[in-house]
């Protein structure tokens, strides 16, 4: 049975000038900085009530230390048929296959409530494209400072998204912006 209340969301930390990566790291981490408080928010959001899943690409998983993040179902996407996912991480070849399977999967007897797309760029592109598995929520941490990068967050039609909330963390150097997809008729 499919979960009709399933939320598919994007979680992204992005620089003011649009970068999400630099040499396999977050752009601010590349220069030795951290975003104080952002990691606990990421953990709280992705774990939720304990019935959530996260999806990321292979490179993003490797940036997490090649291990599953506890408290949530971990999915890695890789087109490499020889890639072996780490323990407690399930590999899928495609975004749509992963989402379609998760819509019917249960965790500890409960339907999956939320699927969080956690990068990288190619996986974000898949989640933003129109179709049955399109993300309907974006939560983005946006730095106040510009940083150099070599991977940008994909362009998307901002006119299809409504800003629901902006949390300002001026003392920490970032804002958290929540957007929702406007239902087009």
Give a description of the structure.
19% of the residues lie in helices and 32% in strands. The chain contains five helices and twelve strands. It has an eight-stranded mixed β-sheet with strand order 5-4-3-8-1-9-12-11. The chain is globular and about 40 Å long.
In terms of topology, how is this protein built?
Layout: E1 7-14, E2 19-21, H1 27-30, H2 38-47, E3 52-57, H3 58-63, E4 73-77, E5 89-92, H4 95-102, E6 106-107, E7 110-111, E8 114-117, H5 121-128, E9 137-143, E10 151-152, E11 161-169, E12 174-181
Parallel strand pairs: 1-8, 1-9, 3-4, 3-8, 4-5
Antiparallel strand pairs: 2-10, 6-7, 9-12, 11-12
What count of helical segments does DSSP give? Answer: 5
Percentage of β-strand residues: 25-35%
User: Poorly predicted ranges (pLDDT <50, ≥5 residues)?
Assistant: none
Distance between the termini: 26 Å
Morphology: globular
Rg, rounded, reads 16 Å
- What is the H-and-E element order? EEHHEHEEHEEEHEEEE
